Amino acid sequence: MSNATMNRRNFLKIGATAGGGLLIGMEWLAACHPGASGPATMQTLNAFIRIGTDGLITIMAPNPEIGQGVKTALPMIVAEELDVDWKKVIIEQAALDTDKYTRQVAGGSGSVKSSWAPFRQAGATGRQLLVNAAADKWKVDPAACTTEEGVVYHKASGKKATYGELAEKAATMPVPKDVKLKDPKSFKIVGTSKTNYDLKDIVTGKQKYGIDTKREGMLYATIVRPPAFGQTLVSFDDSAARKMNGVSNVVRFDNKIAVLGRSTWEVMQAAKAIKAEWKDDGTLESTDDYKKNFEKTLAKLPDEPKRKDGNIKKGFAGAAKIVEAAYECPFIPHNTMEPMNFFAHVKDGGVELHGPIQLPEKARNTIADKFKFPKEKITVMTTRMGGGFGRRLMTDFIEEAVAVSQLAKAPVNVIWKREDDMSGGFYRPMALYKYKAAVDANNKLIAWHHHSVGVTGNTARENNFPAGAVANLQVDTHEYKSPVTTGPWRAPIHNYIAYSEESFLDEIAHSTGKDPVQLRLELLAQAKANPVGKVDYDADRYAAVIKKAAEMAGWGTNKPGVYLGFGSHFSFSSYAAQVVELANVNGQLKINKIYCAIDCGIVVNKTGAMNQAEGAMIDGLGHAMYGELTLTKGKPDQHNYDTYRLIRMREAPPVEIHFMENTIDPTGLGEPALPPVAAALSNAIFAATGQRLRSQPFIKHEEVFSMQKKTEV
Amino acid sequence: MAVFNLTINKEDYKVDVDPQMPLLWVIRDFAGLTGTKYGCGIAQCGACTVHLDGTAVRSCSIPVSSIGTQKVVTIEGLSEKGDHPLQLAWEETDVPQCGYCQAGQIMNAASFLKDKPHPTDAEIDNMMSGNICRCGTYNRIKKAIQLAAKGGDHE
Ligand code: FES
Ligand code: FES
After folding, report:
1. CATH number of the domain to which B25 belongs
2. How far is the CA of A164 from the centre of ligand 1 (A)?
3. Burial level of A567, CB count in 10 A (0-12/13-18/19+)?
4. How many angstroms does the Cα of residue B144 sit away from the middle of ligand 1?
5. Has this prediction a pTM greater than 0.80?
6. Number of domains forming the structure of chain B
7. B130 contacts in A (CB within 8 Å)?
8. Backbone angles phi, psi at A517, to 5 degrees
9. Which domains does chain A have, with CATH numbers?
């Protein structure tokens, strides 16, 4: 973010609270998006700092909380610059309430990144305002005043006053300009560990999630949807369902049937009693069809490459050696622990929405468009979410809830059965990656061809490593159209790219007799000295995490009885490198440990960051090992955790994580630790067995690697 | 439909429901205690774990008609002030991410710690592997259980 944006006149507003305290409003979104226009009023500001006369500091956090920890991390940034005692800070989740807040959005790994500058600015402005108030009162120079933990001091005269005592006066002062931000080296809150703000409510069962929403007169609802992607509803018989206990209504909309009633289980039971007839055009595909058709698609190049450096034909013509490999990746559902659900109440020409959504603003716009409600008649309250992973960037479940509430003329909470959630689509797209590389007589990588297809718009991240390090490089992708819906899934596309590319780099290293870590460092040195084309990453920061992870794992030191595999990746402006350490115990491979070095700039909340990185690695590992959703004629074959396997405690290895220390502004963290782990594991398996795992999930190659035996060794 | 009298967290509840309705939904939709979560409905994830006469069970897979006089305890009733050694250990270890699975994790751990106050790592793995955490907080869960176990007895 540029300073020009930060200095926008209307970015901050000062006012008094009803109780005589100080209110600092931030036009957070405008600060992030220079394009937003119009002067802000207190009513339109979407983040607040409130300093009560009692000295309590309330910070309203605008970003939805999906378990990534922003509700704790973002207020830490404000508290740091404001210079207050963290124990006196109260955090409130701000709603997307159209009466109060007009422009509020939230993103995935971008929350801390995009809030860093405006939140610091707001905190620092608040601090300066309180200092000015004290200086004015004491008739001293503000520059001679200092602050510490919510108190302003004037050392020379021995005077001091708490923020609470100064709040009333500060509310009448002009907004200070050009405030000084702290030197990151003097941070006292940022960079420490603050436990999850909702912790107490979570461990005592008081925390409310969307699925817990219940209102006077509300009906629970569950929906019967087409069992296969691409099917439509012909007719249905609901006579048995309507007679069941607790059922009050059955409504049809689009190709779906909703059953409403007084309890979740009763409507779920009744939904099973609906006899529906579905039809399709006879072209629905199964997993094997996708595989065959992907191969066919890759027989030709697309019209335009995504990226073209040098000339790969020439590169391959001058090759001393050519390496080729193909990698397959399956469809994967999100499986948030809290299944999809949403509360909707259509009334008075508008609708009240309440539930788990990663993009509340998008929800309101979509509903306004589709149902023709004026935007100001739509309110959205975001609940804490039982996981997001990208699934809650969609609004399909909200559109359904609105349709059902409208038809049934009642407030409803539409709750998805796990089976519906798992077969409900928006999957991580199935994809096939083919790579071809050439090395010259000096073992130098001179050509690289990425050719991929998947059920998504772009299967590549074309400006990512090794682009920039290879003279002749081409990236070609195809979108394969399918009625199966796909969408972002934690570290979208990066997860498969990192697996396939980083495994393929390992193949190149082994077939040219190079050390895999050394190969990467050489390529990065080249990208730094002589970058080819556009490059998104910083070669030095990239190389630093690679070296650090290698050092942590004792790479190259010949540890007896263990096998190491390496993987690294750049995503969401952050760098992650990992080493998986395997041991062969009585013929069974077991993960001893995963080592990880991350550079995401300044770490705001250490414990939260560790939790995120650790979770991302275990998540990535689990899905690489077990995750696969297959289809038979458009119909998902797995519906619940008896047939779809998620990683469990006995399969989760210890991890060791190191955050690179620097004073660079923070970048993404919720996702970047996930992508490298699958490659690091498959490369370790190769080191141990000589077997290359070119398709996920790895459990299909059980003969090579069985984690199930882990606890028995 | 039939009337059932239940004791949940020391309070008496009377519900008129289908005898087959799983305890989970009686707790959530009729008793209004939403700390117990729905994850799978088929005894595979552990999100719905509660205690029946002190033993951890998957409430999604137990019909209300089979409860009889057994006492039901949910996460809301695990301790009076939220100060069960596991709850404190969970706080100290900063375990949750999204938090959705955690009530089930704590209830499961609370029950098995009574029989095994000083579990080994492998025992924790085995006892806790019926509880899924999609956010991957397993290592912290394990750490928190060890921490609580160190603290002493769990009656
Ligand atoms: S909801 Fe009962 S075990 Fe999953
Ligand atoms: S903390 Fe999210 S599922 Fe366990």
Report:
1. 3.10.20.30
2. 48
3. buried
4. 22
5. yes
6. 2
7. 648
8. -70, -45
9. 2-190 (3.30.365.10), 210-280+340-415 (3.30.365.10), 431-705 (3.30.365.10)
